[in-house]
Specification:
With 101 residues, the chain is mostly helical. The chain has one domain (2-95). It is 97% helix and 0% strand. It has two helices and no strands. The protein has helices at 2-95, 97-100. The longest helix is centred in the middle third of the chain and has 94 residues, at 2-95. The radius of gyration is 43 Å and the shape is rod-shaped.
Length: 101
Amino acid sequence: MGDVGIVVGILAMMVALGAVFFASVAVRRVEDSSMTLIRSYFDPIKAELTEIRATLADTAKKAHQAEQDCATLKEFQAGVELSLQNVERLLKQLNSPKAAE
């Protein structure tokens, strides 16, 4: 009778190991399909984020260039204003009564 218990125990262990094996295979399949599903949702989001980062970098470059252009225009404006002041001063000197003599 003791031998039957050993055989039944060995069979029970084999069934338990088989159950563990099939459970691990099932879990692996579920993980693979869930990762595929997650990637299908997140890959477009990652692509959009990459595009947004590129657009943001381009916008930052353009903003920096606009700031430089604005500074250049202000320098040019200051030069033009100085030239106009010099012209006005010269015109006043030419139109003054002492210049007529």
